[in-house]
Amino acid sequence: MEEIQCVPEEAQEEPDPKLKTIQCPAAAVEEEEEEEDDDDSDQDFRSSNDPFVGRWDPPPVLVCTAGAGYTKEEAEEIFESVYDRDDELLLKWCEMVEGNVKPLPPVPQRVLPKITTCCVSGVGCYHLRYWTEITSETKPDHPYFIPCEMMQVFSLGLSRPLTYPVNIYGWVSVRDGWQPLRNYVFKCSRDDPAMISPGCSFLPLRSPCRGIYVMQYCLIDIGLWIKEEGDGSDDKLLFSGYGEINTSLTGFGLILRRRFQGDCLGLDMHFAFLGDGIETLIEVKAEAKQPSDLRISASTSGFNEEISLYDGKFCGSGTMFKHFMAVNKQDELHIVLKMDEARYKWTSKAGVGVVVAPEHPVSGFAQYFVMNVSFRTRGKEASAWQWSCIGNVVNVSAIDP
């Protein structure tokens, strides 16, 4: 069970889109990097066991121009208003803890104010630290893999079930220790929103483009809206802003629950930090001549929480899905497929292979159904296995890196 502490975390900050990229001589950049190397506090964020985490590409030189329009006193006022709101939410939550309220809602997550005194002074601004002006997606690949500290998001959901259907669009992403650009776990455009049915609250997870690697801090980057009829001017803001999570306060190996509270609804995120995570890719390719309703989920021996990999109809042939997740190096990975009354289960482990697998073809996919599980370590797919059923012939084999 997650350890509960009724103590406010460190006050943090939130973004302003007004950032400006400037060019400066390479020597100045090198000087800045040398100064950072001398900063002992920065070294605390890095792990000597994780040689690649935190070694980003040379960052763009950014200047936060938002602070130019504010005085220090105005920035302090904005900061205090956000801090007071977060304190009020946390106080109400602590009162529920003391009152033994069940079920207890997720812990309110502190958000970062739009502007801080750091934006005014130009020193230590979180906009610059996390490159928030850059809204592009992070790189899907990096050159080196080793079991290290990772983050796994299990689910995203609204703070309460709905009484009527709504369409939600926007994004939820993590800016992590490998590269502080968006790594999406939810993303839908206004033209193609996620429809949330009455009685439901969960948002459909999207696979991150790679594993999520963490140091001491990571930034949750969120922009969500409820779509209304019309041109978008009447759309309701669900939540827009940033939350910085300190892994040293939350701990590793626990299922954590945080709520990003908006004006009308909150966004609940269930996640965990893994101490020895391995970036793992699950891929399913199949052929179905008739539409089949199926649900595929994954969990590990370390966490009972399920991750939804696929939930819907499949017809045709090709790749059904690819999903990246984090698995502790000693844990088993369980994948379950449910279709009608049938249930199929696969269990794999890094360095071992397939431990449990169906002995018979998946109903409705007798001609072609292939599941690949790749535990990515040491710069390549060093532990990859395949369960395949082609023409009713079931086979389990290792995949050469």
Automatic annotation (TrEMBL):
Residues 29-42 have a biased composition (Acidic residues). It comes from the Eukaryota. Residues 1-60 are annotated as: Disordered. InterPro entries: DUF6598 (IPR046533). Pfam families: DUF6598. Residues 150-344 form the DUF6598 domain. PANTHER family: OS01G0590200 PROTEIN (PTHR33065:SF117), OS07G0486400 PROTEIN (PTHR33065). This is DUF6598 domain-containing protein.
